[in-house]
Amino acid sequence: MQKVLETVSANADELARLLVSEQGKPLAAAREELAGVSFLLKKACEIETKPEVYSETAERRVEVRRVPIGVVACITPWNFPLFCSVQKWAPAIVLGNSVVHKPSPFTPLTGLRLAELINDNDCFPPGVFNCISGDDQAGFNVGAFLTDSPKVAKVSFTGSVATGKRIMAACADDMKRITLELGGNDAAIVRSDVNVKEMAPKIFAGAFANSGQVCCALKRCFVHESIFDEFKSELIKCASNAKFGDGMSEGVEYGPLNNKMQLDKVSAYVEDARSQGCDILCGGKARDGRGFFYEPTIVSGIKEGVNLFDEEQFGPVLPITPYADDDEAVRRANDSDMGLGGSVWSSDPSAAADLAAKLEAGTVWVNQHGDLTGAPFGGFKQSGIGRELGLADITAFTESQTLSLAK
After folding, report:
1. 145-161: per-residue pLDDT in tens?
2. Catalytic one of 84, 123, 215, 278
3. Do the Cβ atoms of 219 and 297 come closer than 8 Å?
4. Is 215 a catalytic residue?
5. Model confidence band, residue 140 (pLDDT cutoffs 50, 70, 90)
6. pLDDT for 8-47, tens place per residue?
7. Could you say which of 181, 234, 312, 388 is catalytic?
8. Is 181 a catalytic site residue?
9. Contact, 297 vs 318, CB < 8 A?
10. How far is CA 261 from CA 55, 298, 346, in A?
11. What are the strands of the beta sheet with 129-131, ordered from one edge?
């Protein structure tokens, strides 16, 4: 794995530019993703497991060991194609498994190029690391083949709830181990005591990072009614100042949506909200010209029952709504089938932490949103099953075996 790290470092600029070309994110963001890949590889190099002596008596010694699962299929998304893949296969390999990485058909090139570099530099013995791409709609569906194959012992998937459910059903036939990191509809609760001018840009960044194409992006914003109008105005300023454009251009902060399917989905959500009388405060349409660009959009006058509010939009659109008190904010934030992330914003960290503990989400931030922690990551409810990253990698990619030794 150290050799993979050296290979990535030596080819980081090439991989970053290729990432911009196929995914669309700005070059600076692509370089940040490569930095994240290096971080994951370094952490993987540090993984070790030792037998735990569970008990020992004059009659016997009981140990608990972690053993490899076998072949792990890593099926990854198009929003962070390098980070999300290395997050899975690096710890899986270190823990003794072989892997088959299946990248998204929308972003196969970076995964295939990294696999080529790994192969050219003899980083692993033959058969340990494999990468196979394919169109999910083709006659031969690579993802379906992997989830159905009796040779695959574990499937680790990051993607939509709908696809995650299909994978879960397919894996049930032979009881494959699964980890599913699925969609989110993350809520932010903005309390009345915040410094609006200071926090609004941070909340905007939490919602619009990677043009909103982040599973744990901020997707619903509950703002205390006493500061709602002021906060709304500051968000509109943030949207008007945001620099969207070609990822290779200097100064660009946000790129296009990755594919037309996603552009059409985001457009449909906004048009549905418009038809139901919601206020489109800025943006609200695709940009003319080349690229799947959608203007940064803030929507108010919205509440539960509108698709844009209830479902994951996965684009540069943020619905905001007022609330009266903390109890209402928590109740409404938790009123979702998803529970990936959430955040609380306040000048009182202690009160914010108490409120954060009430949110039904796998990761909850205070005065930040979406920042990588390196700790186990995954969701409540329909946002997934299992955890990856940090110590969770050991349980995600190994089986627990108890060994009882008579003396």
Report:
1. 999 999 999 999 999 99
2. 215
3. no
4. yes
5. confident
6. 999 999 999 999 999 999 999 999 999 999 999 999 999 9
7. 181
8. yes
9. yes
10. 56, 21, 37
11. 129-131, 98-102, 71-75, 154-158, 177-181, 384-385
